[in-house]
Amino acid sequence: MTFLLDHDSPDDLAYSLHALGHQCIYLRNILPRTASDLEILELAHQKKYIVITCNYDDFLALGKSKPHCGIIILKRRETRASERSALVHLLDRLGESSIVDNINFA
After folding, report:
1. Alpha-carbon distance 82 to 28, whole Å?
2. Is the pTM of this model over 0.85?
3. Nearest Cα to 47, choosing from 65, 64, 66, 25?
4. Which of 68, 86, 96, 97 is least surrounded, with the fewest CB atoms within 10 Å of its CB?
5. DSSP 16-80
6. What is the pLDDT of residues 34-84, one digit of tens each?
7. How far is residue 34's CA from residue 19's CA, in Å, rounded to a whole number?
């Protein structure tokens, strides 16, 4: 799977995702910081990227009304290690078929 890390997602998530054999794209490398959440979701859908974001309110609403290839909303935790662990646990528990085209929380 290819993941698009939103501006608010910790960069170090990429280390865990790469270790699991996934690709990661940093949003800042493909769209300007001023891009709207809708533009982000549309690009991700077009490229078949799964969005990882901490932006619960906006992406949950967009994900319910707009097409997407998958959204993972990462809950902020006390440590980055806890955030990485939650993401890896989600991927292990659900697998690709439950991640793609769904909204999940890690």
Report:
1. 24
2. yes
3. 25
4. 97
5. HHHHTT-EEEEGGGTS-TT--HHHHHHHHHHHTPEEEES-HHHHHHHHHHS--S-EEEPPP-SSH
6. 999 999 999 999 999 999 999 999 999 999 999 999 999 999 999 999 999
7. 31
